[in-house]
Amino acid sequence: MARKANTSSADAANPGRLKQIALTYKMTRKADPKVGLVVAGVGIGVLGVLLAIGFLIGHPVYLGILGFVLALLAMAIVFGRRAESAAFGQMEGQPGAAAAVLQNVGRGWTTTPAVAMNRNQDVVHRAVGRAGIVLVAEGNPNRVKALLAAEKKRMNRVVMDVPVHDIIVGDGEGQVPLKKVRTTMLKLPRVLSGPQVTAANDRLRAMGDLMSNMPLPKGPMPKGMRMPRGGKMR
After folding, report:
1. Contact at 8 Å (CB) between 134 and 166?
2. Rounded Cα distance, 174 and 14, in Å
3. Which of 82, 83, 108, 166 could staple 135 via S-S, CB 3.0–4.6 A?
């Protein structure tokens, strides 16, 4: 019974994986029309080289099997990279793109999107991990610097002993392209232990709860009232 259950679950999972691969390919092809030709060319090239070597040394069957396996692996790697590039290309310039990247940084990171925002929709996101706190800002470079400074000042009240890094997403000088945000974060030195990361998250979460519990006027904002200049939403 257990074997039958495992077999049926595996059979049910395979169509899901194939459907996901097909959907990924369709989405990638919209941004990269040559992805199919490139992936097929890589596979044929790898298989052809291994087969040629096999005929030269007198073992075409063994090298053919090895070439087939390596061709599939090479095709998967190339397709994955081009799919990733296409996804980043579609996300770049879209509001909240950095938050989507942070959600997929990996295990060990706790992400909180939009911890600070201004009236121009410049946003700062926060991630906490073994490297400390990483603030990722997207929007106008000049405006987000003020947002970052204000957020650092706010956090220093409760986590002054935790290192804070900041990243401004963009292609300008001193900025990090969207597709390199994850790599940049993973290269940061790990200086905190697991319990320290948990403690930092708890303190930041408590700070957010305190802000949310502050008395605010209920109902719509009265007519004529404006947000003060330089004010930010949290």
Report:
1. yes
2. 44
3. 166
**Which of 154, 147, 150, 163 minimizes the C-alpha distance to 200?**
163
Provide the pLDDT for residue 70.
93
The residue type of 216 is L
- Report CA-CA distances (Å) from 73 to 13, 27, 222: 21, 21, 62
- Strand segments (E) across the chain: 110-117, 123-129, 132-138, 164-168
Could you tell me which of 40, 212, 192, 187 has the C-alpha nearest to residue 115? 212
Contacts of 205 (CB under 8 A, 6+ apart): none
Q: Could you tell me how far CA 44 lies from the centroid of its own chain? A: 32
Compute how many other C-beta atoms are within 10 angstroms of the C-beta atom of residue 111.
17
CB neighbours of residue 218 within 10 Å: 5
Radius of gyration (C-alpha) of the chain in whole angstroms: 25
β-strand 123-129 against 132-138: which pairing, if any? antiparallel
List of long-range contacts for 84-93, beta carbons under 8 Å, 24+ apart: 84/179, 85/32, 85/179, 86/27, 86/28, 86/30, 86/31, 86/32, 86/35, 87/27, 87/28, 88/178, 88/179, 89/31, 90/31, 91/178, 92/178
Distance, in Å, from the CA atom of 86 to the CA atom of 28, rounded to the nearest integer, reads: 6
More confident residue, 26 or 154: 154
Prediction pTM value: 0.59
115-145: pLDDT as tens digits: 888 888 888 999 999 999 999 998 888 888 8
How far is it, in rounded angstroms, from Cα 125 to Cα 112?
6
